[in-house]
Amino acid sequence: MSNTSDIRNGLCIKHNHDIYKIIEFLHVKPGKGPAFVRTKLKSLTSGKVVDNTFSSGHKIDVVRVETNKFQYLYNDNNMYHFMNTDDYNQISIEEKLLDNSQLMKEGEIVTVITNSENGIPLSVDMPANVVLEVVSTEPGVKGNTATNATKPATLETGAVVNVPLFINEGDKIKVDSIKGQYKERAKE
Question: Which residue pairs from 156-165 have beta carbons closer than 8 angstroms and sit at least 24 positions apart in sequence?
Fold first, then answer.
């Protein structure tokens, strides 16, 4: 058994008869009263995100997990197929276990977190940034850059991201895979 001092992003815990992954946390020490930890938890069975507050020193049940590198192959309907880069075994994972699946392109290397006890995949972590090509976007209007103006751009995976006006079709851009936002133009 661990306690709240062991909480960190990405930690998988058992809570309320379900397995959750900690997305965000904040240790709070108010001027009056006891300290507590405010967390944002994502259910690994339903995909639902909930807010929860643990009192300081609260016991948490940590789930032992293994991480492996997998290559994204393809998807059909709501199932995504991956191949282990070490032993070439293939697995299928439901879309609800993926964050920002619309930013994943075929051949992308991801980290799959599996439960050590039963081998069931719990979640898929993408790289922090992905480089994608802009397939279609409106041309930018010259002189309309007084404010940080953006325009929607459709990427090669089908995702739509707001980009600055100077981005054109065919450009490669770096996208933050956690927030799903434009970061910068990719360096060739």
Answer: 156/105, 156/132, 157/102, 157/103, 157/104, 157/105, 157/132, 158/102, 159/100, 159/102, 159/103, 159/132, 163/134, 163/137, 164/140, 165/140, 165/141
